[in-house]
Design a protein that fits this description.
The complex is a heterodimer of chains A (161) and B (291).
Chain A: E1 5-12, E2 15-22, H1 27-34, E3 53-56, E4 59-62, E5 75-77, H2 91-98, H3 108-121, H4 127-133, H5 145-160
Parallel strand pairs in A: 1-5
Antiparallel strand pairs in A: 1-2, 3-4, 3-5
Chain B: E1 7-10, H1 14-24, E2 28-31, H2 37-42, E3 50-53, E4 63-66, E5 69-73, H3 78-83, H4 85-90, H5 92-98, H6 104-109, H7 112-118, H8 124-132, E6 135-140, E7 143-148, H9 149-152, E8 153-155, E9 158-159, E10 166-173, E11 179-188, E12 195-205, E13 211-219, E14 226-227, H10 229-233, H11 242-255, H12 266-290
Parallel strand pairs in B: 1-3, 2-3
Antiparallel strand pairs in B: 4-5, 5-10, 6-7, 6-10, 8-9, 11-12, 12-13, 13-14
The chains are: A alpha+beta (161), B alpha+beta (291).
Chain lengths: 161, 291
């Protein structure tokens, strides 16, 4: 079936990406299937699990609840955009490894986006604020405790710098 | 889990959005934050032929605090309203309710207008609109009109808006009384979900602690969010002691019309209605006493 295509231009992880997309293509499908940025995961596809979280203009949103065409003219950061420019991991990513903040890894990219957005806005969050920030992200492995520890550890390290 | 095909236009202005609605009529649907519409389209519960995107209309994103309340553009994001201290001081019930709405990721995208126009009978913001008597300012190519929240909500997921009308702004009234307190509470399966039952209350007290004005509402126990102006008016003149509050909560639960579903029986919902209405009234009273 041929569908009408819409031209979009989106800044993804600092690079301008131009494309033509069918209007019903979700932002997450465009990121994964067209740009091959497969760090962002597709979980429930209806806005419950948080696995597809990305930042839109610096704020975390669910990329399964947006059509790619709606991101036209905006700035998107995926988990690939969290690493340092040399490709090494961010303080938050290191902390997830050290505290065993992940097991299967499916929720991790969404957790990282939610937690990084929190730390960007609030470098010294309370445990309650951390739980609230990741409250929209489901994890079926860790029991969440190590994820909260990871965010606390990363916050301590970034503040100490 | 992919939406059916549709045509799409990004409206640059409210006039353009209204013109598109006038042209496409029933087959068109407005998309604001999309936090309810997109999943419904993904599950193909709705299949609009034409989607009019109003996200980029900057003129619909305003939040202004006025003497008699606050005015929010239909596309004001829930996160922006939640963070607005001046608005929270004038209409505290809005921030109190937003604490129960979704999650950070959905509030960053979700709008006040979208939530109200979606008219889920268990949603928090429509309940606030009912309890405060918010005014909905509607616009179409033919002109503008204002609807009271009581007339706006017509049934589950349905409003009195015509297919060619766009919600432009919402006026949230503030009470002029000095000692006013409000509260919002709910029971949901998980925090951030739509409520099984939600309750909202606002009361004003005179210097002696007697009630001079009261508002009470319940969500999740009828086809629309319910307000109980007569029950609330019977509280006026009373000391809001436990007896008066429990009586009003019990009357409201009796007047409510809950249904049964997978999550809760109607008996359990009616029980929650009574308990939560009393909790909201007590908390509102305590805040008014401290004001």
């Amino acid at each position: 079936m041929s569908e009408r295509l819409y031209a979009i231009e989106v800044e993804v992880n600092g690079a301008r990406r131009a494309a033509e997309v069918p209007v019903r293509m979700s932002l997450v499908d465009w990121l994964r299937d067209e740009l091959r940025l497969t760090g962002t995961h597709v979980g429930c596809e209806h806005g419950i699990c948080g696995a597809c979280s990305v930042m839109l203009d610096g704020e975390p949103v669910r990329s399964c609840l947006m059509y790619a065409v709606q991101a036209n003219g905006h700035r998107v950061t995926t988990v690939e955009g969290l690493a340092k420019p040399d490709g090494s991991m961010s303080a938050l990513q290191d902390a997830f490894c050290e505290t065993h903040g992940l097991q299967c890894g499916y929720c991790t990219s969404g957790m990282l986006i939610a937690a990084q957005a929190l730390l960007d806005a609030n470098p010294d969050p309370t445990g309650e604020q951390i739980r609230d920030a990741i409250g929209g992200n489901l994890c079926r492995c860790t029991g969440y405790q190590q994820i909260v520890e990871a965010v606390e550890l990363a916050a301590r390290r970034v503040r100490a710098k | 889990m992919k939406s059916a095909p549709f045509e799409y236009a990004r409206a640059a202005s409210l006039d353009e959005a209204c013109a598109l609605l006038a042209k496409h009529g029933d087959s068109a649907k407005l998309i604001a934050g999309g936090q309810s519409l997109v999943p419904m389209m993904a599950m193909r519960l709705v299949r609009p032929a034409f989607l009019v995107d109003i996200n980029e209309i900057a003129a619909l994103r305003f939040v202004t605090v006025e003497k008699d309340g606050a005015r929010t553009g239909a596309c004001a994001r829930q996160c922006a309203v939640e963070r607005d201290d001046a608005l929270a001081a004038r209409v505290p019930l809005l921030r109190q309710a937003l604490a129960w709405v979704g999650h950070v990721q959905t509030r960053n995208r979700g709008t006040l207008g979208g939530s109200v126009a979606h008219a889920d009978p268990a949603a928090e913001l429509p309940l606030v609109a009912r309890v405060l008597g918010a005014k909905m300012i509607l616009r179409s190519a033919k002109g503008a009109r204002t609807l009271d929240a009581g007339k706006f909500f017509a049934g589950p997921m349905s409003t009195s808006m015509q297919p060619d009308e766009c919600l432009e702004a919402i006026h949230w009234p503030a009470w002029g009384e000095g000692r006013t307190g409000s509260a919002f509470t709910e029971i949901a399966i998980r925090h951030g979900d739509f409520a099984v039952v939600a309750a909202a209350a606002q009361v004003a007290l005179d210097p002696g602690g007697r009630c001079t004005r009261a508002g009470l509402g319940l969500g999740g126990v009828g086809g629309t969010p319910l307000a109980f102006p007569e029950i609330a008016s019977r509280l006026v003149g009373a000391k809001l002691d436990d007896e008066a509050i429990d009586g009003a909560a019990s009357d409201a639960a009796k007047e409510s019309d809950p249904g049964s579903d997978l999550h809760a029986t109607k008996e359990y919902r009616r029980h929650l209605a009574r308990v939560l209405a009393a909790r909201a009234l007590r908390e509102a009273r305590d805040r008014a006493m401290a004001a």
